[in-house]
Amino acid sequence: xxxxxxxxxxxxxxxxxxGSTMIARSEDGGRTIIPEGFQVVNPAxxxxxxxxxxxxxxxxxEDLAMPSLRYTSAPDVSGENGIWAAAGIxxxxxxxxxxxxxxxxxxxxxxxxILDPSEGGLGEEDFVTLTLPYLHSxxxxxxxxGYLVEKYGTYEMNGMAxxxxxxxxxxxxxxxxxxxxxxxxxxxxxIAPNRLNIDEFDFDDTDNFAASSDLKDLIEExxxxxxxxxxxxxxxxxxxxxKDAHYNNPRAWYIHNxxxxxxxxxxxxxxxxxxxxxxxxxxxxxIKWAESSHYQDTPYDAYGDQGTxxxxxxxxxxxINRNFETHVLQIRNDVPEEIAGVQWLAFGPNTFNSFxxxxxxxxxxxxxxxxxxxxxxxxxxxxxxLAAQLGDTNYxxxxxxxxxxxxxxxxxxxxxxxxxxxxxxxxSGKELQDKLIAANQLMADTVYNNTVELLGQxxxxxxxLMTLKYDLLD
Length: 474
What we know:
The protein is of the alpha+beta class. It has one domain (5-377): Penicillin V Acylase, Chain A (4-Layer Sandwich). 30% of the residues lie in helices and 17% in strands. The protein contains 10 helices and 16 strands. The strands form 4 sheets. Strands 12-1-2-14-15-16 form a 6-stranded antiparallel β-sheet. Strands 7-8-9-10-11-13 form a 6-stranded antiparallel β-sheet. The model has no long low-confidence stretch (mean pLDDT 97). It comes from Lactobacillus kalixensis DSM 16043. This is Dipeptidase. Keywords: Dipeptidase, Hydrolase, Protease.
């Protein structure tokens, strides 16, 4: 079973620099490299009969019988453990990212245990494929996943997010058959590491909160609430462990202080708030920096020179060797709906890659982003992986080259996107899609070529830094 331990960032439309909604996540894996790709699933390709690879759960055909929409995805290219579609935007500009692996506690597991995969149930492998093509609003995602979890159960604790041009909803599974969800305020952002994240919850506010119909009664019946007043779902269903203090909480703490330097606190603090507000409007560049971060300018930076060797290994960073795919699903409000959906995508460790803003109103994706399972330098996934592993050998030298590469790549992609937005203003149908496909190809080629150039610069700089050398004195 693939292990994924990610970091989710959500930005409401009034918290973003351009009025768009943005849901982002780094899809991280384990010790084994898991190549990720980028593809479009057209309605004719959406399965009408579905069986999970891991749990062998069969989905009733009537749950797949409704008309499906075209959608983008970022699947595992091997398919050995299922599709793992990860994230995408459908043809009605509804976005979904799934999933963030989260924590639980023994109290809820004693009431509603998660399933053993041998018993069936759904997991990260399944959720995007079974949900995204059927959504017409962000809240539809909450209803659809809630239905699937209640009917089929789950063998994991997961968080996931849904967005449209106006709203963002975040959902977390609770035990084997329950769930909770919260609408993110338009002026707020969220940073969600690998723990149960939703805190304050109001069962009476049905505009902003949703849950399994029997969840409130279940909390009361089994005495699950440790607080004297109110409902804090992290206290009720989540964890507060040493692992949280070292693996999860510091990631949130660092980004909170990036978005608001007055946030303060300590890296291991257990009760950092779920809903937060930045001291400025948040950009794509902010999210990329956050998803690439490794505690810069603190003693905990593995690449830094402030801390001791022990401090450098104290906390798990967001940018890590196990980043295999990172995305921002952006639904824009300042352009026509035909070009509103943009899937910003980067493969490999975020310390040495760049986002590419792909239009999602397309029927195919650039060849270089259609990854192969085996090492292939024609594919950006493998090129980025090589750059990151070489860069890791001397970050002080190669990090400056990467900064310039990323600045250049993002600027060029922004320019292509601005030009394309203007050029397609009066286009529609196939003519429009062909133009967007061409723009996506141009951006993919641009970043691929820039990455090759970066590798060349790293080789040039590294030539004289090799240990195996002997200077000629003639």
